[in-house]
Amino acid sequence: MHNISKAQIQEELESEKRFSLFSFYTQWAVYCIFFIFKLELNVFIIISGILFFIFRLLAILPKNLNPRIYLLNHLSSISILFFFTACFTSIPRNETHLFINWQLYYIALAFTIIHESMRVHKYAFLFISFLSFTIYTIIALTLDDFFSVPITYKFFIPYLFLIYCTSLGYYINQFKRKAIRYYAVLLQDKISVNRDMGLARNVHESLFPQITKIKGLKFEVFRKSHNQIGGDFYDFIQLREGNIGIFITDVAGHGYSSAMVAAMLKVMVSTLPYYLKLDPTGLLGYIDKKLSTEIKSHHATALYIFINFLNQTILLGNAGHPYFIYAKKGEEFKEIETFGTLLGFGLHDPIVETKEFKYESGDRFFIYTDGLIENMNEKEELLESTGLLKILNRHRNITNLKILKEKVISDISGFSGRADFTDDAMFLAFEIE
Questions:
Q1: Total-model pTM
Q2: How is the chain split into domains, by residue range?
């Protein structure tokens, strides 16, 4: 065998061990049919049966797989051939059961050939086939009470049957070996993909803002990707005079392609002309044109918030994203409805309508991606934005944002009955100082 990977060698050894366990039970079960006859037990039956038991056991028990398992299975197969041959020759002869006994013998030989073809070793079934033909011929030519059996039944039919089983065994063995090679390639690809996925995840993680503090703003973030990486992304844009822009997007789908588009959006937002970073309509309109002309295969929702700490105003633009949730200090959380369409289709110009409002110290707001509210409960009901609002208002008196975040996560998991999400999920909770 040439150019065999470690994965293929390991899988072949594991396959051989699985065969050993399978064979240990099935061959005993099949060959014990001989014991329905009144056998005259002899030393050959006992020794060959014990050897089969020992060799198979030695192939099954070791935890560390090594090529010795092939030899043990070879020896075990030879032992079982001699075992049932010894059993067959010990069956009492009478004319009534002569043909039945004879047919039972070469059927057992054929079963052994096909059984061996399920091993991964490509010569095992050929060796057993040759040995079966040899032993069968010796038995047919030496047992006196079978001289009366016609040549057709004693040689022609059994040989044809054994040749057919050998041919069938060849195809079974080839298919199994191809399946193992294919599996080994897939396993190698999976290892490579997982390694690349880990690298991509590290790169993807590095795109998220490393900011832990923003002057004038407290915040907590929750992120959960359906795969290792996803299309949900947010960014903080540091502006002059201490002002800040907050960008959140949800690229359609999840996985590599969505993460790549999210990374491109990160670059777009970072390299935008400064004046667009002060204008949600201009910023989201620019991204819409880029997506619709340069990346036609993907679309996204996005929300951009510009917080002006000097005049205490918030500018808000929403391009098809879940509504911005806002709570005046001491009041309930409410959705702020805005007009805007999905990014990437070039449907409207302007793509969004900017909304402006005043804020005060202690006000809170909550932004999220739709994967957060799309899990179903046992009654197949979605949480939806109304359910999320109920959860937020249930805990609105909690002063610590981190505890509020934990409560929201706990209640969402309690609603769906599981901790995972069917899509990428993310939310950011903010409080203005």
A1: 0.64
A2: 6-189, 211-432
